[in-house]
Model the fold of this input.
Amino acid sequence: QVQLMESGGGVVQPGRSLRLSCAAFRFTFSSYGMHWVRQAPGKGLEWVASVWYDGSNKNYADSVKGRFTISRDNSENTLYLQMNSLRAEDTSIYYCARDWESVAGTSGVFDIWGQGTVVTVSS
Amino acid sequence: DIQMTQSPSSLSVSVGDRVTITCRASQTISRYLNWYQQKPGKAPKLLIHLASSLQSGVPSRFSGSGSGTDFTLTISSLQPEDFASYHCQQSYTTPFTFGPGTTVDIK
Done:
């Protein structure tokens, strides 16, 4: 079935960098916008970033703007999140999610989610 | 940014009960409101999009309504597998924002 699988999480010191990956399976990845959504321990969900199906447009939450970069490789069916200058408040489970609409901008409806990868920022 | 609130924050119910969760946006979002279910240790799952459109495969006991700023998720007869947290989310504009969640647990 349609599936997303994140990887790349771990424990990292404040100020350091980490790159998350999200591999897509059994759907036409290049046709869908994609998102990263995170959830801090015991907290609610926070949208982080989105990218159009063709990579031409990207949006970020203010809390990560200038530090995080979303990108995609449609030839490899993979979504990325480059996280620089990490802070303690970035500690979360990071989910990648597919946008509900295909071959369009991002609708902001997240219809398929990965299982998440845990990022812990601590000295 | 559009702020989303939910009430109640938690509720204890019994199997078979009717459950209603409300979500309010800080400004009008038309019908750009989505509901997700999340079980402990799992990723969220899309239940309803655009306020009232049931996602494929979601049981018909789930329904959504509302427009503008006030929305409702209703579970007509709660089943054991429905004990979970429920999150509303606006997709009207970026940043896409979520409500704080409502936890439904066993009475």
About this structure: The mean pLDDT of chain B is 97.
